[in-house]
Amino acid sequence: MRVAALYDIHGNLHALEAVLAEIEREAVDAVVLGGDFSAGPLAAETVDRLRGLGERAHFLRGNADRELADPDWSLDDPAAVERLDFARAQLGPERLEFLRSLPEHVVLDVEGLGSVLFCHGSPRTDMEILTRATPEERLAAALDGVDADVVVCGHTHAQWRRDVDGRTVVNAGSVGMPYEGRPGAYWALLGPSVEHRRTEYDVETAAAAYRASGYPNAAEFARETLLEPATAEEATAFFEQLALERPEFAGGP
Length: 253
Description:
Elements: E1 3-6, H1 13-25, E2 30-33, H2 43-51, E3 57-59, H3 63-69, H4 78-100, E4 106-110, E5 114-118, H5 136-142, E6 150-153, E7 160-164, E8 167-171, E9 185-190, E10 194-199, H6 203-213, H7 218-227, H8 232-245
Parallel strand pairs: 1-2, 2-3, 5-6, 6-8
Antiparallel strand pairs: 1-9, 4-5, 7-8, 9-10
């Protein structure tokens, strides 16, 4: 089995379509949607497109999907609340119920790799921050009790690969909101090896669709996430500082 791992699409339908076209050329057997696919400007269209993939698609829930699906979840940031409310209204009750039904993990046997566990943040929580700079002892703690040969995660939107305690840990990157320093859709192809991929697409057209969607602060959001994305180094420094300051991002309660 060969598997495409698509993480953190964040309602970016144009990036998704470009990746799906490339996947068709690769004769992929399964597509894992690794969470945070729904929260974004084109939330409903993105969810519908993914559900249309049929039995090849294996969904798991990310923190943003979980937050959207929880009617009591809110944030202190008024701008974030506005974006949350917009996406909820676009998704509607049936799609939100679909998000609530999703598991936190998917496990598949992948050609050449063995057992692969797909999660969002880490195997223990969808909020945990793992990066290329996460201390090895915390990375090992996040894998405690995991039987899989390979763990694939996302959440921090930058591609990396590390080996710890005889296991390989891979961040697939972000299809719709990458922190890689240049535009594109980033994902991973698994089997028989682990291959990080970058797919080009028309980010200007995607940005125009964001602005036309009515998404709150769409022009600024498009600039920051599509046109002028942060670098992996900038994102790593930010996330590791966040993990130091807040225990829920470091595997704690």
